[in-house]
Design a protein that fits this description.
By secondary structure, this protein is of the alpha+beta class. Helix content is about 40%, strand content about 15%. Strands 1, 2, 3, 4, 5, 6 and 7 form a 7-stranded mixed sheet that branches. A hairpin with a 7-residue loop joins β8 (about 315-320) and β9.
Length: about 350
């Protein structure tokens, strides 16, 4: 288990990588989705856009795939027509799976929602090139908008491969998506991925505790503003689909920025315990903690979390950790300021 904040991020990032079995399951579902739509509609091609698995920014146990379906023929006047056709085809093929229109996509929830596919109807335009095609897709607020998925992926890879970044853009995107999933934040994974790449384009090197803080504070300062296409191939893209989602996302983002700042301040003060505590709050109880002996540790100790002694006072805050130990936290102790962790009895 990690003894320091940098080690904690290394362990956390390794645990966020999807399992091979999850990749295989997603590949099987993609094949079935493609067969369904190919049989019902004339299709040019399928392309994953902002896809966690294909872009190397996936989060374990959270398969969230955006699939652009390039449909043959003329584009209908209303995006609702295209969305209705896609939904009808998928409902016919998956009668026992939840299929619903959630603009601007058709959402298919496999495995009780553990694997979610967002299918986006698209129509090729003449505005792009053979290598960088541009598609018309439904806009979140209605009407049509354009997107250039090949150019977007190339941009993320370009930033990620810069010598000073060395993979940091995708690592930051993965951490941002983990925050989104673990805190149920209603916003676009594609937006987070593109914003993470844009942010890292001005940073070097990638230092998780610093860049997570800087990234969330940046998003908060711009209030999740729509983002211009960094290469100018397409239009602006939004962080969320509806005003209510935006209000919730901004509220959770404000908490994230505050917790990330407290974690960074504690780390800079060599207070690893407090840093871990705030990072665990930030990531919904998913940050790996170190459980050692039953001796209480002070904040000056190097990042260990322990069972607290009987002197610990009431007022503990409970946190549930998905697929891990359920823990409760106490941030005050008569013997001195520190963080302690107790297994819950129920």
């Amino acid at each position: 288990m990690p003894r320091s904040v940098p080690e904690g991020f290394d362990v956390f990032l390794s645990r966020l990588v999807p399992l091979a079995s999850q990749r295989e399951a997603a590949a099987k579902h993609r094949s079935r989705v493609e067969s369904s739509l190919s049989n019902a509609l004339g299709i040019h091609l399928f392309r994953e856009i902002g896809s966690s698995f294909s872009h190397g920014t996936g989060v374990r146990d959270h398969c969230d795939v955006d699939l652009l379906v390039s449909i043959k023929g003329e584009r209908p006047n209303s995006p609702d027509t295209a969305l209705g056709r896609v939904k009808s085809a998928l409902q016919t093929s998956f009668p026992y799976t939840e299929v619903a229109i959630r603009k601007p996509t058709v959402v298919v929830k496999f495995a009780q929602g553990m694997e979610t596919w967002e299918v986006l109807p698209g129509f090729i335009t003449s505005r792009g090139s053979q290598n960088m095609p541009v598609y018309d897709i439904p806009g979140a607020a209605g009407g049509w908008m354009d997107t250039a998925p090949t150019a977007h992926l190339a941009y993320v890879n370009e930033i990620n491969n810069l010598p000073g970044i060395a993979g940091g853009a995708k690592k930051l995107a993965r951490l941002a998506k983990a925050w989104k999933y673990y805190n149920e934040v209603p916003m676009s994974s594609f937006y987070l991925e593109m914003r993470a790449a844009r942010y890292m384009s001005t940073q070097s090197p990638f230092v998780p505790v610093w860049d997570v803080c800087g990234f969330f504070e940046h998003l908060h300062s711009i209030q999740l503003a729509a983002m211009n296409d960094p290469k100018g191939n397409a239009g602006r893209f939004s962080a969320y689909s509806a005003p209510a989602e935006g209000a919730e996302a901004l509220s959770k983002l404000a908490n994230a920025a505050s917790r990330a700042r407290r974690a960074l301040a504690a780390h800079n003060s060599s207070d690893a315990a407090t840093a871990f505590h705030n990072l665990d709050l930030l990531f919904g109880g998913e940050i790996p903690l170190t459980l050692t002996s039953t001796t209480s540790l002070r904040a000056t100790d190097p990042g260990f979390f322990t069972s607290c002694s009987s002197r610990c006072q009431p007022g503990r805050r409970e946190a549930t950790r998905r697929q891990a130990t359920r823990l409760q936290y106490c941030d005050h102790h008569p013997a001195g300021r520190h963080i302690c962790v107790l297994p819950l009895t129920s």
